[in-house]
Design a protein that fits this description.
By secondary structure, the protein is α/β, with parallel strands linked by helices. The chain has one domain: TIM Barrel (Alpha-Beta Barrel). About 40% of the residues lie in helices and about 15% in strands. Helix 7 packs parallel to helix 8 and helix 8 packs parallel to helix 9.
C-alpha cells in the first residue's frame, strides 16, 4: 500500500484566519472548507453528481451508522467507501465517539472502551480505540478520527475523567493504525474548561497527528463559550497542521471559527433545515412553508448561483412543500449547501487577498441588519 504524504501547506493568513492546501489520496483540499455530512454514505436528498455541481470537495460519513448498517466489512469487500457511494474526492469519517455519547442511557463507558445498544434493533456492541480504527480502515476514508469521549460541557469532574480516557485512547489509536494512506486526526476535548482544553491541546499536539480536531463543542454551551475555547486551543495547536471543528456549520459559525484559526467544518444543518422547509441565506433563514411565499416569484436568494435559485421560485418551493413532494428537500438542500460552500470559498479568497478582517466585519454588520 502506497504511503500518502499528508502535507498541509499554509498559503496565506489574515489575523488568525488561514488559507491552505491539505493533500490527500483523493486530491487536495483547499481550506477553509465546509464538508456536507453523508451520515450513511449519502448526503440526504442530494446525489454525488449534484454535490460535484456544487463544487463540494470533502464529505463526512459516519462510522457508527455504517458499522451497524450495512457493515464496514461489506463496504471493504465492495471496494471501500469511495466506490460504495460513488464519490472520488476526499472523505472524512468520525470515530463514532459522538454518536455513542448521544446514546445516553444505552451505553456504558469504561477505561477500555464503550459498550452500547444499537438504535436500530437494541443489539449490544462495543467500540474500543482499536476497533474504531479497524472499522475506519475498512471504510477507507482519507481522513479518520481517533476514538474519544465527548462529555457534557459543564460537568468538570466527568470531563477530567473523559479527558484522561480520550488521551489514552488517542495513543492506542496511533498504535492500532495500520494503513498508511489515511490521515488520523487527534481530538481535543475538555468541555468549557480552559485548563482542560489547554491540557488536551498540548497533549494531542505532542502526538504529532497530521491534523487535529476540536470536539465537544456545539453540544449545549453558549456561542461565547465556544469562541473562548477556540481561542484557547488556537493558541496551542501547531500551525502547520489543519484544525477541524467538528459538527459546527451555520454561516456565522464558519466566519467566527475561521477568525479563530479553524480550517475544516462539517454539519448536518443545511440538509436538516431543508427537510424542515427552511432555506438558508448568509444572514437569515426563510421558512418556505409560510403563506407569504405562495405568490413569491423570486428565488430564495437572487445572488445565489445554485441550480435551485437559477431555476425555481419561492412559490414553487412552497408548492412542493405543501404538496409533500420529495423534490422540495432536494432543491432546498442544494441551495443550503451551496450557501456554505460559496461562503468558505469567498472567505478563502479574502484571506489570500488580505481582506478577511474587513469581510468579517461587513458580514456581521449585514447580519445584524437582516
Amino acid at each position: 500500500m502506497k504511503k500518502a504524504a499528508f502535507e498541509f501547506k499554509l498559503q496565506a493568513s489574515d489575523g488568525r484566519a488561514r488559507a491552505g492546501i491539505f493533500s490527500t489520496p483523493h486530491g487536495p483540499l483547499q481550506t477553509p472548507v465546509f464538508a456536507p455530512v453523508g451520515t450513511q454514505a449519502t448526503v440526504k436528498a442530494v446525489t454525488p453528481a449534484q454535490l460535484n455541481d456544487l463544487d463540494a470537495s470533502l464529505l463526512l460519513a459516519n462510522t457508527y451508522h455504517l458499522y451497524l448498517r450495512p457493515g464496514d466489512e461489506l463496504i471493504a469487500e465492495l471496494g471501500g467507501i469511495h466506490d460504495f457511494m460513488n464519490w472520488d474526492k476526499p472523505i472524512l469519517t468520525d470515530s463514532g465517539g459522538f454518536q455513542v455519547y448521544s446514546l445516553a442511557e444505552n451505553r456504558t463507558v469504561d477505561e477500555d472502551g464503550v459498550t452500547f445498544k444499537s438504535h436500530i434493533d437494541g443489539s449490544t456492541h462495543r467500540f474500543t480505540p482499536e476497533s474504531a480504527i479497524a472499522i475506519q480502515e475498512n471504510l477507507g476514508a482519507d481522513i479518520i478520527m481517533a476514538f474519544d469521549e465527548c462529555a457534557s460541557p459543564y460537568d468538570l469532574e466527568y470531563n477530567k475523567k473523559a479527558l484522561a480516557r480520550t488521551h489514552k485512547w488517542a495513543e492506542r489509536c496511533l498504535s492500532a493504525k495500520l494503513r498508511t494512506d489515511q490521515a488520523l486526526f487527534g481530538i481535543v476535548q475538555g468541555g468549557i474548561f480552559k485548563h482542560l482544553r489547554i491540557e488536551s491541546a498540548q497533549f494531542i499536539s505532542s502526538l504529532d497527528f497530521p491534523g487535529n480536531a476540536i470536539g465537544g463543542l456545539s453540544v449545549g454551551e453558549t456561542k461565547s463559550e465556544m469562541h473562548t475555547i477556540l481561542e484557547v486551543v488556537d493558541s496551542i495547536l501547531p500551525e502547520d497542521k489543519p484544525r477541524y471543528l467538528m459538527g459546527v456549520g451555520t454561516p456565522e459559525d464558519l466566519v467566527n471559527g475561521i477568525l479563530r484559526g479553524i480550517d475544516i467544518f462539517d454539519c448536518v444543518l443545511p440538509t436538516r433545515l431543508a427537510r424542515h422547509n427552511a432555506a438558508m441565506t448568509r444572514y437569515e433563514r426563510l421558512n418556505l412553508v409560510n403563506a407569504t411565499y405562495s405568490r413569491d416569484s423570486a428565488p430564495i436568494d437572487a445572488h445565489c448561483r445554485c441550480y435551485t435559485c437559477q431555476n425555481y421560485s419561492r412559490a414553487y418551493l412552497r408548492h412542493l412543500i405543501v404538496s409533500k413532494e420529495m423534490l422540495s428537500a432536494t432543491l432546498i438542500s442544494i441551495h443550503n449547501i451551496q450557501v456554505l460552500i460559496d461562503l468558505t470559498k469567498e472567505i478563502r479568497q479574502a484571506i489570500i487577498g488580505g481582506r478577511f478582517q474587513n469581510f468579517a466585519q461587513d458580514f456581521f454588520t449585514s447580519k445584524s441588519m437582516a
